[in-house]
Amino acid sequence: MSTKPKTPLTVIGGYLGSGKTTLVNHLLRNADGKRLAILVNEFGELQIDADLIEAQDDDVISLAGGCVCCSYGNDLIMAMMDMSKMGPCPDHIILEASGVALPAAIAGSVSLLNDFAVDGIVVLADAETIRNRYNDKYMGDTVSRQLSDADMVLLNKTDLVSTEDCQTIHAWLSDVTSQTPIIETSRCAIPAAVLLQDFGRSDIAPATQDAHQTNNFQTTLRVPDGPVDPNDYAIQLLKEIPGLVRAKGFVTSTDGSSKTIQLVGQRIEITPAPADATTGVVTISVCQASSKPDGE
Amino acid sequence: MTTIFSARKIITMNPSRPQATHVAVRDGRILGAGTLKELAGWGDYTLDETFKDKVIMPGLVEGHSHAMEGTLWKYTYVGFFDRMDPHGKIWTGAKDIDAVIDRLVEADAQIEQDDAPLPAWSLDPIYFNNERVTREDLDRVSTTRPIGIMHASGHILNVNSKALEIAGLLKTGINNPGVPLGKDGLPTGELKGPDVMTPVGIHVGFDRDMLACDEQGLIDFAKLCVRSGVTTATDLAARLPDEAVNMMLEVTAHKTYPARIVPLRFHHGVTPDELIAHAEKLKTQSTDRLRLGMIKVVVDGSIQGFSARLRWPGYYNGAPNGLWYISPEHLQHVINASLEKGLHIHTHTNGDEATELVLDCMEEGLLQHPAPDHRFTLQHCQLADSAQFRRMAKLGMCVNLFANHHFYWGDEHYNLTVGPERATRMNACATALKNGVPMAIHSDAPITPLGPLFTAWCAVNRLTSSGRTQGEYEKIELSEALYAITLGAAYTLKLDGEIGSIETGKRADFAILEDDPEQVDPSKLKDVKVWGTVQDGRIFPAANL
Ligand SMILES: [Zn+2]
Closest partner residue to A2 among B168, B194, B329, by Cβ? Predict the structure, then answer.
């Protein structure tokens, strides 16, 4: 059996038009120095911004910060196995599921391959259309299954709806996804570190699932007004946000350097941030079901 | 050069002259069918009496098969039913797990290398009272070489411990619905669904692209065609990259290649626009024996794999609804563009919800791009109800029903997947015809064996493998079944002006039979013996293949 470390992988799901292409381009631009490999269903579906492309052949588009690989339309698992033979190893793989695919099924299959570890499933929802999709005669159950597969939902295109509508949709989405963190975004602007975090799919203990059933999670994105002391800022988050369970993101330190803050439970970790890290910290907290996050 | 063939009887399928004793052939085409005296009027001829005590039918047309049936015979056959390989050898069915193991032990002995894989195919535990095959069973064959058996449905793979070990799956803690675990917490060796099958499948000798057919496979597939009286067969879903197309062009152009192959471009792996562009390009590469340019769109999965999309009330055993393989938006786009550009689509739908989606998209597409003779065809379409058949008729659609399915899995559908009422209406041939929907029937080889006369028998008798009649009112007449496997299938391919009947101007494509299908008891239709075929005027005796 291979002793090679597993390459972390995140599955991106969501129906057509929910913004997966924008998200992929955003990640490529804001990879925080990570070498990303993007595995897509079909090339043509995914318009990679031309300035990111270094070279392109039949199955691979080479990019400054990584590559986009293989249309797996025919066989995802085959494409994954090809990828594991391809060097150099990417730091993280993003697998873009097709609009009708069930991301958890994909994650389940990928996790059988010894070279990869599924870190999470992120599903995009288009704020304008998600409710219609959810109620669609043909696609409703598929969209619903996609949402319930998610470790985190990005409620995207919030700039295209009014604040009021956005709140309504967010509340509705919280209802149908119960405990899943929801992050509002426009044009998929979200720090890569938040999106590509390890949601602990492999080590969710049944005990914490009980908590999940009785509680709701709230997710917010906090952006400090200026430079802060990272440790103080983390402690401040713990004080200000009741039920804070996890926080991750980047801040500019008072010494001018960029730092990564990671907070799990009461444990705080401060490390140097990768170059080009976007400032902002995503927090996930347990809260009352009815209240709405403060927004972004 | 005119050759006149005499026969005991010629079933022409030409409504103006249903029977004849002689058929005259020139340049691979039919001058006419009639009496010797009538045909002699065409001038000098050679009288060929090879078939004087045979029955000639139009060459049979298989409207839904896959050329990979030819390729699969590289692997060891362990199916429940007797089945003929391309060389004419009948492999007796393996009637229990021990028989499967015995067959594998024989195959194992013939492989020299200790660690070379042993792939086998066509296992079907539903005939073993659903007793599952385990890795321990297969370990009795070998613990040193990886062994894998593909199920008849194509949806499940059984492997031995060695295969699991090589794939890194002989471990505890696997949490995947496609990988059942034994009491020891280790996988039992049964792997369900393509995504779970693939990582182990490649270690047991199943090639990268199971649907792709290699050169030898394409040659062997044509041999199976000759043995079953088929002169035109579809290869219903291939990606058709240039290399494959070139190979197929070369193989089929060979002067002894005995069949006309109609490959359809599979929708997966490209965008809708790329699909359309590829089909248009393929159309220009078409030859007489390789008809290119049609499109296959797969809309849902399979009923026995619980991945077909069903309308309410869904699966009889409560399984969740199946999977979509294309979005309605993409389907609509492909349909619209194809109608506009005169491309021809066949859709795969098994569940009635998938069928409904295609009907909706066709209705919309035809409003935008009226096409008086598109002949878009619903393939399988197993669960359609009579309202859907009425819509098909209105929309000018054809249907190709999976008559063989009834025999092989009818009992399972009755008891487990869709329940008694819908199992009874599955593959509703009589309803299709009653509503005026042009209809073909198919084998989906290699899922079930290629053999249109057997398929016709299935549609006429509607017996399940347990011997039960399922759907008395959906039986069709013998003459309707014979039509479905000739002109009916040709019509769905827009080839009915060229093939499917024996009449002036058409291709000299014949099925040469030892018995008269019009005279045998309908319950014996499947036993009608095939002598071979004539394709484009070239004679292919099965015995000489
Ligand atoms: Zn098929």
Answer: B168
Residues 6+ apart with CB under 8 A from B514: B54, B55, B528, B529, B530, B531
What is the interface pTM, i.e. ipTM, of the complex?
0.89
Residues 309-338 of B with CB under 8 A from A: 309, 320-321, 323-330
Domains of chain B and any CATH numbers: 76-201 (3.10.310.70), 276-500 (3.20.20.140)
- Unique residue bearing structure tokens 């209705």: B363
What CA–CA distance (Å, rounded) separates B150 from B148? 7
Residue of A nearest to B356 (CA): A138
Q: Do B270 and A16 touch (CB under 8 A)?
A: no
Stated pTM of the model: 0.88
Tens-digit pLDDT string for chain B (545 aa): 899 999 999 999 999 999 999 999 999 999 999 999 999 999 999 999 999 999 999 999 999 999 999 989 999 999 999 999 999 999 999 999 999 999 999 999 999 998 999 999 999 888 888 788 999 999 999 999 999 999 988 888 999 999 999 999 999 989 888 899 999 999 999 998 878 888 899 899 886 665 567 899 999 999 999 999 999 999 998 889 999 999 999 999 999 999 999 999 998 878 899 999 999 999 999 999 999 999 999 999 999 888 999 999 999 999 999 999 999 999 999 999 999 999 999 999 999 999 999 999 999 999 999 999 999 999 999 999 999 999 999 999 999 999 999 999 999 999 999 999 999 999 999 999 999 999 999 999 999 999 999 999 999 999 999 999 999 999 999 999 999 999 999 999 999 999 999 999 999 999 999 999 999 999 999 999 999 999 999 999 999 99
Q: Dihedral sign, CA of B157, B161, B163, B169?
A: positive
Strand partners for A216: A287
Domain A7-195 CATH assignment equals 3.30.930.10: no
* Cβ–Cβ gap B329/A16 under 8 Å: yes
| Closest residue in A to B358 (Cα–Cα) | A138
Give the residue on A whose Cα is nearest the Cα of B327: A100
How far, CA to CA in Å, does A214 sit from each of A178, A210, A228, A288? 9, 7, 35, 9
Every domain of chain A with CATH number 3.30.1220.10 lies at: 217-286
E-only strand ranges, B402-506: 439-441
| Class of the CATH domain delimited by A217-286 | alpha beta
Pick B327's closest partner by Cβ from A1, A16, A112. Answer: A16
CA of B236 to the centre of ligand 1 (A): 6
| Cα end-to-end distance, chain B, whole Å | 26
